[in-house]
Design goal:
CATH architecture of one domain: Alpha-Beta Complex
Strand order of the largest sheet: 1-4-7-2-8
Distance between the termini: 50 Å
Helix content: 10-25%
Number of helices: 2
Order of helices and strands: EEEHEEEEHE
Largest sheet: 5 strands, antiparallel
CATH topology of one domain: Aldehyde Oxidoreductase, domain 3
Radius of gyration: 19 Å
Shape: elongated
CATH class of one domain: Alpha Beta
Structural class: alpha+beta
């Protein structure tokens, strides 16, 4: 498998130019890659929990789907270990729909004679990313009051896997 390009190339939010359509003539992108996020809802969604914790982004950027999946796995593992399968509800709020494109260029000695440059290149689909704005929730965890510490720790672990700095917001149900 090809090595992933550094995410610095895709971090800035630009106008999405990734229209996909069921009509081939209207689609800019011919193929949309599958998302690597396995599940968006984990735990018990039907139970009524008094506390909601949200992981908020401090900056506007793209978050790749493999980063979201990695963050989901680490936080879910901790929550399942301490709270069991029905002691929480974890939800990934953002959805990776933005298609990341790569313009493959020739590398090596004398490659400048073959390449035509990167100016206004469209590129081939390389993956998916979620568009996140400043202050937007990325993850949401619902727990009981006695499990607040575990939920905070799970969201902190998830934030370590994401390419942005995050804050945790605690909302109490009245």
């Amino acid at each position: 498998m090809a090595k992933l390009r550094k995410f610095v190339a895709y971090r800035r939010l630009k106008r999405p130019y990734t229209r996909t359509s069921k009509f081939k003539s209207e689609a800019y992108i011919r193929m949309t890659p599958n998302t690597k996020v396995v599940r968006f809802d984990l735990g018990d969604p039907n139970k009524d929990f008094p506390l909601t914790l949200r992981l908020l982004s401090k900056s506007s950027l793209h978050i790749r789907d493999n980063a979201l999946e990695s963050a989901r796995q680490t936080s879910n593992k901790l929550l399942e270990t301490y709270l069991g399968l029905n002691g929480f509800h974890l939800k990934i709020v953002v959805y990776p729909y933005h298609v990341i494109r790569e313009h493959a260029m020739a590398a090596g000695a004398g490659a400048d004679r073959f390449s035509s440059g990167m100016a206004h290149s469209f590129g081939k689909p390389a993956g998916l990313a979620a568009r996140v704005k400043k202050g937007q929730a990325i993850f949401q965890v619902k727990v009981d009051k006695q499990n607040l510490r575990v939920a905070k720790q799970a969201l902190e672990r998830a934030s370590k896997k994401l390419p942005c700095s995050c804050t945790i917001q605690v909302i109490e149900k009245k």
